[in-house]
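Lab notes, practical 5.
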Amino acid sequence: MYEAYVLGILLLPAVGSIISFMIGRKSEYHRNIFNIIVNVILFAVVTALYQPVSNQTIKVFIPDIMGTGLYLKLDVFRYIFIWITAFLWLLATIYSTKYLIKYKNRNRYYAFFMLTLSSTIGIFLSEHLLNLFTFFEIMSLTSYILVIHDEDQYAHEAGRSYIGMAIAGGLVLLMGLFLLYDYTGTLMIGELTLRMDQIGSMKYIISTLIIIGFGVKASMVPLHVWLPKAHPAAPAPASAVLSAILLKTGVFGILIVVGIIMKDDRILSTAIFILGLINMLLGGVLAIFQRNIKRILAYSSMSQVGYILMGIGLMGFLGEHKAIAAYGTMYHIVNHAIYKGLLFLGAGIIYMVLHDLSINEIRGFGKHKPVLKALFLIGIFAVAGMPGFNGFASKTLLHEALLEARHIYHNGWFQAAEVIFTISSGLTTAYLLKIFVAVFMEKNQRYWGQYRNHIYKRVKVPLVILSGVIIYMGIRPGALIHVINGSLETFGVHESISIKFYTWHNIKAVFSSVAIGFLIYVLMVRKYLRKQVDGEILYINPSLQWFNIERNMYIPIIKHIFGFSSAILHIIDQSMINMVRGIMKSIKLVMKMEMKYIYHIRQKIRMQMNGLFGTEKSSTYSFDRLREDVNLEMYNVAAALSRLRSSLNSITYSIYIFATILVMVLLVLFT
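Output from the prediction step:
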């Protein structure tokens, strides 16, 4: 019975996207209502599945799909990802019905929005890595359409970066899966835990390739280059799910590899832990310099994913004591989705009115808009981890896990990691202060009370709901603990934790990072990044002149690879042409010599037959048969020559086709 429901939550959005597209061709109003109904049904079914899933794992197998069959699994661990996906997609769909009212290609948007939802659920349900990879690639392609929705120059540039990194990551992931199957003989996630221990050091190469593939989507350094482009380019509801949900598909994959397949291997956990610290710090630093709100929030997502990666690494370090790290990691996955969804949708309201998100242009817009200001402030407090808001609980758990590791190992590196954690939290406060002060506190006569009627009530509903969830989880931080508790059996955690969140130690740690953030804001943002030019306040971004991984590393490397490949293909092409010409000349020479020999033999036969028969008739008859034999032999040689030429041309054409496809792909991605 429950198997049908699991299959239903996978198929409902996919089938709904087709029906929605057909309805939208006749009535946009009915299409919008239909999409909301589909998402309400999906969310209701997912919510109803919690009780059975908490008691048993639901498995579904459908043979003859994707070659190996479709293996689906729903346990509490996967349920958390699917529930938050269905919840945020419903709110984003409601929001889209008003946000997109002045956009073009609305029908296409909704179709691919629902297809992206279906493929995302497929990722979280997949128990077979080939199924997971297939849904992962479908999600990349469908979400690409959302990124380029505006179809202006910037959107297409962002789309090229997004799809280029997605394809590259997918190929690396596929290579890892090929090797994994070759060495273990299976791609079933549950069976790989035992088999990975039997392949020696090769498991590190395989796991690295797979993590790189998932790391692209998770915006893991240095694979994050698509993130600050794609988020500003996409419409606000698409940006919300890109940050809140699609990033989590990469995190989900990394959790599967590190926490399940590799069983918290110490070497791999160390690498993830270090990358998490880099993500936290670098994302925060880059966010401070940005002027576009969506770019600030994009780099903020990169930084917040760093906290999650750090938690995954700590799970490996703490071993049998990893319960608190596991709780903190799962809690932060949920929290980040909620408060980042709120902030991206809030930014979308501003864009709906002003069609701009540069703080130099929208400065002071929200000063006299108390509702929008309050909703934004709730999201900002949540990201900063302030007491009373949901971010406080997960950051407290992660901080406690870091202290636990430091206490167990007495290692100076963990002390350094704690410093990075505190500074990163301070940077979070600083860039959020930059947004709030610039948009909601500074004075600007252009926006004195205007545009209030331009803000639709419907777009506020999702923000109010998300704000309510943030405050509820902040007041009752233990409310999610019992849900997370059931998910941690996946990682071998069978103990529950009892932690007092609102202690003086935890509150003091938060306000210490907030104080550091306030100092960074005053001493850096206000002093160096905020300038007065011709009587007008402007924010500058010196990071535009810094080293850029995509511009200064990836693109030059690709160009050199392209040039090298072109030279190699040119050499192969010329070699094939010269070889064909040489063979043709040789065949012509052989045929010429053969014809001379045949002519010489024919003359001798004529002389012998004239002497034997003495009649012209017999001679003529014999010569006719001889001519037929010679012509037949010449035909066979010509046919063989034609077949050889065709084969050689096929090889040459294959090289031309390969080179053409390679050139086209590179031009599409990097021009």
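Observations recorded by the TA: Strands lie at 58-62, 70-74, 530-533, 536-539. Confidence is low (pLDDT under 50) at residues 615-621, 647-655, 665-671.
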